[in-house]
Design goal:
The mean pLDDT is 90. A 4-stranded antiparallel β-sheet has the order 3-4-5-6, with no helix packed on it. The protein is mainly β. The chain is globular and about 45 Å long. The protein is built from no helices and 18 strands.
């Protein structure tokens, strides 16, 4: 009948957001020293003392004790941070070459960005998602016409193995023995777990859809 229905307010990653901690009773507390920004990809360091997070301007490290922000890299195209298991480095995605690649750098900003993985140039997304138990294998998700979950040997970056095709994203259990990911093989997106690194024993976790 010509009426327009809409939701007031902005939409998308350009929105200003706050980062909060939430206690066991569900009470949120904004983190001090963090101005409103387009925060995403919030990752807690292994020791629990820092946050890695990205905005439209790049990557940031937040120190809980000092309530301060620092930049591990000045690359404005950097996003999707992932801590190494020892908390000494940050793996991140950069589109500086015009397509997504994985880099890493010392979390304190020393040294320089080092390329870890370059894949097909038609990818729309490439991001690090987890580690093997010994920290030698980095799990990643790539998205082009179809999605895939793979792993790359940190000591041999040319050694790449695709684990699961058509599914994303992924997460590895704390003990490194299971991998969780979403798949639409049933006709809708559900969450599955599967043994890692040997694969097998795939089990559905969600029953009414999930991401």
């Amino acid at each position: 009948n010509g009426s327009l229905v809409y939701i007031p307010g902005g939409a998308g990653l350009g929105d200003e957001r706050s980062v909060v901690s939430v206690d066991r009773q569900g009470r949120p507390s904004p983190l001090p020293g963090l101005p409103l920004d387009s925060y995403r990809d919030v990752r807690v360091s292994p020791d629990g003392g820092r946050l890695a997070l990205s905005t439209q301007a790049g990557l940031w490290i937040y120190d809980f004790t000092r309530a301060t922000l620092s930049r591990p890299t000045t690359d404005p195209a950097a996003h999707s941070p992932l801590w190494t298991r020892d908390g000494q480095r940050i793996v991140f995605t950069s589109i500086r070459a015009g397509y997504p690649e994985l880099f890493w750098r010392a979390a304190d900003g020393t040294g320089s960005d080092e390329r870890l993985l370059a894949r097909a140039k038609d990818l729309t997304s490439l991001r690090a998602n987890g580690w093997s138990e010994d920290g030698r294998q980095l799990l990643f998700v790539e998205v082009a016409a179809t999605s895939a979950i793979g792993e790359v040997a940190i000591e041999r970056p040319s050694d790449v193995r695709v684990l699961v095709k058509g599914d994303s994203p992924s997460a590895v259990s704390p003990n490194g023995h299971w991998m969780a990911y979403q798949s639409n093989e049933s006709g809708r997106t559900e969450i599955y777990v599967e043994r890692y690194p040997g694969l097998g024993s795939r089990q559905p976790i969600s029953t009414s859809g999930g991401r």
